Amino acid sequence: MLRARKWLGLCLTISLNMGLINFVGFGLLGIARGVGETSTASASEPFELSIPLGLKPLPVVKDNPLTEAKIALGKQLYFDPRLSDDNSVSCASCHDPHKGWSNGDATAVGVRGQRGGRSAPTVINSVYQHFQFWDGRAGSLEEQALGPIANPIEMNLPIDQAIARLAAIEGYAEQFQQVFDRPVNAEDLGKALAAFERTVLSGNAPYDRFKAGDKNALSEQAQVGMKLFFGKANCSSCHAGANFTDNGFHNLGVNIHHEQPDSGRVAISQLGGDHGAFKTPTLREIARTAPYMHDGSLATLKDVVEYYSRGATPNDHLDEEIFPLNLSDDQQAALVAFLEEGLSSDEYPLVEPPKLP
Length: 357
Fold this sequence. Notes:
By secondary structure, the chain is mainly α. It contains 12 helices and 5 strands. It has helices at 28-33, 68-78, 91-94, 141-150, 159-167, 170-180, 186-197, 206-211, 220-229, 266-269, 301-309, 329-342, and strands at 15-17, 20-24, 48-51, 249-251, 277-279. Helix 11 (301-309) crosses helix 12.
């Protein structure tokens, strides 16, 4: 319903303990410990990663093994505004850890205040997404990472210039050589950023604890909302699985009758059925990522639930799973309670900017 959100040299050990799957790797525990500078980090040093309750093991990426030093490098790059042409915008500008790893605005804002037409998707659990961007034009985090840097209305820095700029910074030149055993290049820039983004995880929410047997983890209202989510409200037809997304694309009719509507996925797939269709986002930490939908046109979760309840906006390509739900006010409130309470973790992945080279 709410469709509007290997490791080379790595020893893998799995153990179940207190609802967590522990890997020898690097992730949120490494971030929490404050790893952000790589001057003393071995290029292949493993670090203990905890996969939160409710999530699955990270997908294996054979050509981009996770190491502590690589992720620390990626973290610095993520927060560095020098990857924009005027040194004003970083990845974190539109994907701010303090704002749900989005930007709290309807659309993304780039250099010199330029605005795109789509909202900034959250980075949270993007490791589990099969496609990146609202239209799915990138098939991996590595591919996605370079797009905004070169985009004229985002960071507006051609990749060759970005590489030259990084290579001229001694601290970065040394780290790229240490981590990748070669000078700064575009492929490794994408790999470092993707490695860091893969560690931004959220799970162990009240919903996960409830499913694990803690019947006090959800309030009575949220439990009613959960039943609606997986039942009458039909939310789970698209927001399915551990990450609450089917990784698919759907037409919800959002601003479809605008004078110049966003064509969505069809521009990439060239399939008529994808007209006006956008990627199903995760719903984890959804309460932190307002406003909603691909264009940020719905301000609150209450607005989103109301939109679905009335059957969205009819159009020739409206997804077959969208129809009037006719939910009562109490049912709508219960759904919002489940989304806000049930999918918000006390272990939210808040990350502070590291010291930059």
